[in-house]
Amino acid sequence: MTTYIPSITLPDAIFANPAAAILVPVGLGLGVGYSVSPKSTQKTYLALKQPPFRPPPQVFGPTWTSLYALMGYAAYRAWTTGTASLNPNTVQLTKQGATLFTIQLGLNLIWMPLFFGLKRPIEATANITLLTGVTGYLTYVWSQVDTGAAWCLAPYLGWLGFATYLSAGTGYLNNWNFGDKERNSTTSNTGSGMDKDYVNKAPEQK
Prior knowledge:
It is built from 7 helices and 2 strands; from the N terminus they run αααααααββ.
């Protein structure tokens, strides 16, 4: 059982402020997404063999932004409700959840660099499996503090289950190796030599 660990938990002031609670995960998520390069990520996504029911790449940005906002609002609700309680057990559960929230946010933020940046599907799938478990436990803990906060985490938990399926399915269908999907290709006249492309990249939409 995870306990409240202040040294690895986001500051109390973030949880207590609705704007900060929402904007911190949204901002961090967007920052990681743009650091990996959206255009490169989309090309990689289209290049890999995918399991059934994969959504188009344009779905992920709005979906994740909404889920980051929801998780932030859940954190605010749980924190303000729990810390105001006169029940010491409720206060302890609230703070325990704050540590779990911080852990899951960290796991969330490193998935994209693992999967798309470093192209490590095994590690990325292990990461998202752990992330789903931690989030499930967080939802259970905060459900004892504020049912509204738990319901705000429900769409996120459901999406993580689907994302775990996509991560594992994509890894399996590509033999857990994304590196062999790359080839050297000559750039156009305006290019500067050789670049990397995917051998089964889907044709660009016009």
